[in-house]
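chain below, 192 aa
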Amino acid sequence: MRKIVLSLSVSLDGFIEGPQRQIDWHLVDDELHSHFNEQLKPMGAFLSGRVTHELMAQFWPTADADPSHAGPVAEFAGIWRNMPKIVFSRTLERADWNTTIMRDVVVEEILALKARPGGDLALGGADLAAAFMRHDLIDEYRLYVNPILLGRGKRLFRDSDSTVGLRLAETRTFGNGVVLLRYQRRTACSLH
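prediction:
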């Protein structure tokens, strides 16, 4: 069965974006971008919310046409275009670039998606991740901790009444100071 893998950049104090939604503090150099490409290329699909999908669709379809975007950036443009994408949105009417729209996170539909053959499913975005967490659907967490304290912004994890046991599967330090913490799901239990 395929796994659902949440992969996000996060500040040391747990934010995925600053108070004005800024993400310019994400340290993505060629080394880290090459790593992202290696991790994402074999995936079976990208799962995202509408906002994340629309941001990606504004840049990646033609990023490799710009000569200033060479190397890993140009490579990812091809990966993104060719990858099946599922966008979760109640308002989006249509989406291009090999994209299917799902209206909500329905457990039975996600389990059926996981049961299909193919690569794992890359989950992105804090709001969508919260919905998947509520239904206990995330199998692996890949957090790229950036060496910065933001103080305020949008948190990766919301308050919850559940505890999810995780097992450390990998750590890796990149030359720019970003640290990958890769955890796999162990068990879930209630805190009541």
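The first strand starts at residue 4 and ends at 11. The beta strands are 4-11, 15-17, 45-49, 85-88, 99-102, 121-123, 140-146, 154-155, 162-173, 179-190.
thats it, cya
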